[in-house]
């Protein structure tokens, strides 16, 4: 029996154009289609696989505006059992620390949590810090960047994979927090039966005040401020090399000038 | 007033299949098509998503949805590829649906759970080498000998009949003569691998190349008497009702193909330049695309409405025929215009529009030709009666 909380986030679809809002440099949520972050789908998949093997319950916890309900529905239609949705205008512009505090309180409303699963980083902000901050706030062992997870009895083992360190093997007693990378699994697609069932699954809606965080969160209280932002410059045309028998040399000279060779 | 919005769960299904088609089918289907190879892994994934069980209740392993849910899935698949769409369409509406509709409890429980899961495929053997829409021209025979049906004859153009996961073919056969002198036609379940039942190698086709289509031969093929599907002598009436539904499904496939042409062209006309301008800046291209959109939009409304009548249990023969007629026209016209817009690249197999062009033609033929649809529409209006 393993009770699992999965953190999910609604993000702008990576297929659409993403930008920051002109006024306060926060994410412009209207500018792009909103989807459940793909790394969260993998986190849900991992939770469902563990649940199918060990029984238990999967609860999704989401902090985001009302429309994030669509992302929650998708998680529920994949097979999660219930959801906690923290939605509050006051949270607009919350930074990583505040978001982690909200998540810590929200996870605290779920009883008997054995394991928290997060994606290693969201595809919009790409801070990648929330799992670690949350683990600290909750006093849980953190096993991040997992490409493989095994839960046996009261223990979780992961293969942690990072670009710098290669693969390390970690183990902790439950309760614990893990974050998964994109190699962890291939998430399932929701079936129509799952979609129909999701309509009847409970979603608890909470505000910052419900969690006792009124007045502490939001853009005004963020620890960091985005001063300005500019759109990515358009890609410049490449340099053309005409091959007059010396094309190879010219290419080599170009690469050398860029310190690539 | 009429509300044309999709219910939340139908929209969620549509999005899911759109995502699947874009992420899983689009990157690989071109190669399967080139090699005329059946995409077993994609079909398995479609099975895991529950697509083959969409219109069936959970009691037989289905998803508890309906025929409209199936149509939405077909449209989204066909936006990317028609071979996988037709594999699903035939698997559900021709393979599993007759068993669900006309089978007894034992037959349903024996066959449907595996067909609904996509682990196995069923096929429907109606058309014969000498007769397509003239189903009364059936020459295949089945006679009871020592408590078994002995089947002799052949069937043509049977989808999903020869894959490694094909489990059965339901065949129509002449089982006697009615008092009025007409042929008595019945439907009989023939499990794959039954001695005397052979499937020919795959046809070489103009389109739908990643789907499985074969000719079947029966030579003293024996199956138990209880493999009769539905009532003896009702085979003809049974498959007529299956075909009406199938027309709505083919309309959905056609709308998907027509939409896929638009999707591809919108991308292309914003990139491709001639004479120093994006080709989308030319009215010749704009008008083509506007016509493509108008055809697709009206065809989609036609099949939605036919499906709505079907699900309400009202007669929908005329609406199904109209939907199939206008949608297959839209598919053919759009694929012709799309290949024109793509110019020389439209004639290259590496671009999807060329594949769409080849796949569109059969839509004016399969599940009743466009001429048959016109016959049905005018007959429903009482013309020439």
Task: Summarize the structure in words.
The complex is a heterodimer of chains A (261) and B (385). Chain A has 261 residues and is an alpha/beta fold. Chain A has six helices and eleven strands. Chain A has helices at 38-54, 69-78, 96-108, 130-138, 192-198, 247-257, and strands spanning 4-8, 10-12, 34-36, 58-63, 82-86, 115-119, 142-152, 155-162, 166-173, 176-180, 203-206. In chain A, helix 2 packs across helix 5. Chain A is globular, with a radius of gyration of 22 Å. Chain A starts with a strand and ends with a helix. Chain B is an alpha+beta fold and 385 residues long. A four-stranded mixed sheet of chain B has the order 1-4-5-8. Chain B has a four-stranded antiparallel sheet with strand order 2-3-7-6, with helices on one face. A two-stranded antiparallel sheet of chain B has the order 9-10. The chains are: A alpha/beta (261), B alpha+beta (385). The interface between A and B is medium-sized, with 13 and 17 residues.
Question: Secondary-structure blueprint of this entry?
Answer:
The complex is a heterodimer of chains A (261) and B (385).
Chain A: E1 4-8, E2 10-12, E3 34-36, H1 38-54, E4 58-63, H2 69-78, E5 82-86, H3 96-108, E6 115-119, H4 130-138, E7 142-152, E8 155-162, E9 166-173, E10 176-180, H5 192-198, E11 203-206, H6 247-257
Parallel strand pairs in A: 1-4, 1-6, 4-5, 5-11, 6-10, 7-10
Antiparallel strand pairs in A: 2-3, 7-8, 8-9
Helix pairs in contact in A: 2-5, 3-4
Chain B: H1 8-34, H2 40-48, H3 67-80, H4 82-102, H5 105-117, E1 121-125, E2 141-145, E3 148-159, E4 166-177, E5 183-191, E6 197-199, E7 213-224, E8 228-229, H6 235-269, E9 273-274, E10 277-278, H7 283-311, H8 317-342, H9 352-360, H10 370-380
Parallel strand pairs in B: 1-4
Antiparallel strand pairs in B: 2-3, 3-7, 4-5, 5-8, 6-7, 9-10
Helix pairs in contact in B: 1-3, 3-4, 3-6, 4-5, 4-6, 6-7, 6-8, 6-9, 7-8, 8-9, 8-10
């Amino acid at each position: 029996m393993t009770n699992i909380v999965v953190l999910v986030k609604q993000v702008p679809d990576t297929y659409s154009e993403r930008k920051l809002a002109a006024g306060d440099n926060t994410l412009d949520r209207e500018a792009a289609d909103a989807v459940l972050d793909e790394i969260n789908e993998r986190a849900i998949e991992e939770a469902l696989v563990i649940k199918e093997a060990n029984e238990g319950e999967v609860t999704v916890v989401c902090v985001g505006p009302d429309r994030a309900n669509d992302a929650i529905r998708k998680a529920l239609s994949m097979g999660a059992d219930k959801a906690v949705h923290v939605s509050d205008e006051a949270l607009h512009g919350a930074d990583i620390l505040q978001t982690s505090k909200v998540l810590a309180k929200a996870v605290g409303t779920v009883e008997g949590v054995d394991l928290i699963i997060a994606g290693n980083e969201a595809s919009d902000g790409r801070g990648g810090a929330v799992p670690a901050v949350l683990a600290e706030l909750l006093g849980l062992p953190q096993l991040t960047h997992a490409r493989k997870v095994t839960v046996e009895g009261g223990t979780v083992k992961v293969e942690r994979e990072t670009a710098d360190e290669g693969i390390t093997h970690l183990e902790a007693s439950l309760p614990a927090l893990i974050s998964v990378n994109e190699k962890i699994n291939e998430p399932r697609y929701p079936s129509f039966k799952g979609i129909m069932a999701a309509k009847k699954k409970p979603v608890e809606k909470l505000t910052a005040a419900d969690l006792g965080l009124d007045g502490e969160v939001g853009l005004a209280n963020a620890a960091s401020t985005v001063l300005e932002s500019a759109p990515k410059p358009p890609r410049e045309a490449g340099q053309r090399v005409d091959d007059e028998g010396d094309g190879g040399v010219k290419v080599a000279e170009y690469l050398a000038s860029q310190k690539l060779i | 007033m009429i509300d044309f919005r999709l219910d939340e769960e139908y929209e969620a299904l549509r999005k899911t299949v759109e995502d699947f088609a874009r992420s899983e089918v689009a990157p690989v289907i071109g190669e399967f098509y080139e090699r005329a190879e059946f995409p077993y892994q994609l079909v398995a994934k479609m099975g895991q998503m529950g697509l083959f069980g969409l219109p069936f209740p959970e009691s037989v392993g289905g998803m508890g949805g309906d025929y409209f849910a199936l149509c939405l899935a077909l449209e989204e698949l066909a936006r990317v590829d028609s071979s996988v769409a037709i594999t699903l369409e035939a698997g559900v509406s021709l393979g599993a649906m007759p068993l669900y509709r006309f089978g007894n409890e034992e037959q349903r429980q024996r066959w449907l759970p595996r067909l609904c899961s996509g682990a196995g495929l069923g096929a429907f053997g109606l058309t014969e080498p000498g007769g397509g829409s003239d189903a009364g021209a059936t020459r295949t025979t089945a006679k009871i000998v020592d408590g078994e049906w002995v089947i002799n004859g052949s069937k043509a153009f049977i989808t999903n009949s020869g894959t490694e996961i094909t489990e059965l073919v339901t065949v129509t056969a002449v089982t006697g003569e009615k008092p009025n002198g007409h042929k008595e036609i019945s439907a009989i379940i023939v499990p794959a691998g039954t001695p005397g039942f052979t499937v020919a190698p795959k046809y070489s086709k103009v389109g739908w190349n990643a789907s499985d289509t074969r000719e079947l031969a029966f030579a003293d093929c024996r199956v138990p008497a209880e493999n009769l599907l539905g009532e003896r002598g009702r085979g003809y009436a049974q498959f007529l009702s299956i075909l009406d539904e199938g027309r709505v499904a083919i309309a959905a496939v056609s709308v998907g193909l027509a939409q896929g042409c638009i999707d591809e062209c919108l991308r292309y006309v914003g990139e491709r330049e001639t004479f120093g301008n994006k080709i989308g800046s030319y009215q010749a291209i704009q008008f083509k695309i506007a016509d493509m959109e108008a055809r697709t939009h009206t065809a989609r409304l036609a099949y939605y409405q036919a499906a709505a009548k079907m699900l309400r249990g009202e007669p929908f023969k005329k609406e199904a025929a109209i939907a199939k007629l206008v949608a297959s026209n839209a598919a053919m016209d759009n694929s012709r215009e799309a290949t024109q817009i793509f110019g020389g690249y439209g004639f290259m197999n590496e671009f999807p529009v060329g594949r769409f062009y080849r796949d569109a033609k059969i839509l004016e033929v399969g599940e009743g030709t466009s001429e048959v649809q016109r016959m049905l529409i005018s007959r429903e209006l009482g013309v020439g009666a």
